[in-house]
Amino acid sequence: MKRLVPALASTALLALTACGSGAAAGDDGRLQVTASFYPLQWASERIGGDLVEVTALTKPGAEPHDLELTPKDVARMTGSDVVVYLSGFQPAVDDAVANEAADAGLDVAAAADLGLDATDDDHADESPEEHAEHASGQDPHFWLDPVRFQQVATAIGERFAAEDPANAAGYRANTEAVVADLRTLDAEFEAGLASCESTELVTAHTAFAYLAEQYGLSQEGITGISPDAEPDAAALRDLAARVEQYGVTTVYSETLVSPALAETLARETGATVAVLDPVEGLTDASQGSDYLEVMRSNLEVLREGQGCR
To answer: pTM higher than 0.70 for the full model?
Structure first.
């Protein structure tokens, strides 16, 4: 992954500022916010409303894991009042915040309460050496658990209120509305996945650990946290055996990455393929126009794929 070194970023920033472009405008009095990827953009826009101008670093259709920053991106971050990001998810953003926008940075990792790795529950009795062999890193996809997302939304609202105290009441009211929507979404998932024929969740990459934990599922991923990783032949054979052992009928591919591995596994085991969206970004293929709609589409996909009544 290419990253901007501090000297390059600073030089680019000076050049862009001199040309009058790239940095936050702020002329209309709105809080200038940069969000590193889509779920944080969605929350920031809902919480800020007309009081903020939100710019997303990850463009629609781009894979956020692979984000590379342009000089204009860094200039935008430097001119922002708040940069909302998740440390450890996009290293280029971590570097740019540390070097160019430390005072503006809002790292939501603590509020998200990240504590799960991307290893499936079936490896719980392994030795530390065996566990390390299967583990594929901490799962950053907190937003797929609406309960964790409530905590992040609250942190964003409080930061906006601190930066713009004259409008604190508005930010807090908007935050309450977002949290209410996420509570409703949680209740829908809780009810919708309460009684399923299968709790084995086989996904293209292990993005769904928090969702699985919250709603009583056990995740198995074809690849690890990085959707670009290539599993070895032995790992695929083991997963195929597990699919057959537990009678898994659906393997989930996703938007933004190739479905080839999921299709291969399904073909070898007689399963079908359905799309389960990790909601890392919206595309024309997304089954919904925003986070809530895509998550509700995911629920229906899961109910059918897991045989939920």
So the answer is: yes
